[in-house]
Every structure is written in structure tokens, then in C-alpha cells.
Amino acid sequence: MNDLVNCCLAALLLSCLCVGSCVTDSGMEEAASAPAIYEMIEVDQEPTPLNMAEVQRRIGYPKDAKRHKIQGKVITRVLVGEEGEYLQHEVLMDDNPILMEGINQEIQHLTFSPAMKEGKSVKAWVNIPFEFKFIDKPVDSAIFQALNYFEVSEKIGYPTVENGPQVEGRVLLRIQVDAAGKYLSHEVLEEGHPVLLAGVEPYVGELVFSPNEQGESYTVDLPFEYGLLK
User: Fold this and answer.
1) d(Cα 179, Cα 173) in Å, to the nearest integer?
2) Global pTM?
């Protein structure tokens, strides 16, 4: 009888050990599915941020850094999931801890095209830099408020009429902006020339502005100047 009990207990113990081993191995495999932060993994395509400009706008310039005129660069190392989602990040370099204030709050909103290896998406780390720098001589305070002014200006180019002469002048728009910095509407203060205005207006709605910390909409007088090289 004792031998039978001992056999049953031994079998039960062996069963428990096997189950425990399976759970441990599974947990270890799941933890090991993400590469270590400095592990070098060859991929056919590295993760690429898809909404970097949007996240940079959300970060803005940390208030304390702006107040104390702190400039510098922060380099983060971000772990990107198989679907391009942010998983975690580590700081590789920061010129001043104050600069991390906004980054830590917003970096999780980054989305990516995932790393690819042999036709499959894989988890991978990628370095993402953030630079904070004061512009000593902004072109215009209104232009400085328009966060993507130069990007939109490039899309507009130099408006011309096909087979017609180039014209010079300034288009000045008064733009209504909501508290979050989104374009609402505009009126024309200076047309400059009908050709110039016709080239500018289709793109005005793409402008993004600094949000108003007081939570109110506001207006910006924004110029677009066109002059021929002499």
C-alpha cells in the first residue's frame, strides 16, 4: 500500500514539475521576443516614424527650458512593436533633464512603419533625436507662430501664370486660429496680386499654429512675400 501511495505522489510531483517548467519557458520566450536595447539585429528595413512632426508639435518647447533659455539635444532609443506601435523608450543622451519634460509625456504617441526582416515585421529599437534650439532672429513673429509655415510655403512655391510673367508682391492674411492652434478661417488684408493670392489660398488651411495657453481662439496676420531676384 505504501509503495502505491509513494508511486502516486512521485507521479504527481513529476507532473507539477513539468507544468512549472512549461510556464517558465513560455514566460522566458515572451520576454526574450524583444531584443535587448543594445543588441545588434540585422533587419531589411528599420522602423520609420510616421507622425514625428505631430509629436514634436505636441511636445513643443518645455516651459522651464524656454524660461531659462536652455537649448540642447535629446536622443531616445525607442522599441517599436511588430505593428509599428511604441512599446518603450530609453534616453541615450540629454543635454539637460528639463528638455525631457515634454518628451516623456508625448513620445508614446509616436507611430512607425515597423522593422522588416525577410518579409515579416519584427520588434526593433531605433534612435529618435529631439532638438531644442532658439531662433535668434525669427523672420516674423507671426511666421514663428505658424509651426509649419516653411513647409506650407514650399508647397505653394512661387505662384505663376502659365506662359505669363512672374509677378512680385505680398499677400497678407488675417487667420482665425482655435485654441489648439488649428486653422478656422481667414480674410485677405493685402492681395499683392491676384496670381499670388490664387496660389496661396488653397494651402492656408494646412497651417498649424502654436496653441493658446489661455484656451481661447486668436488671430494671426501672416505674410507671404514674393520678390524676383535682381
Assistant:
1) 19
2) 0.47
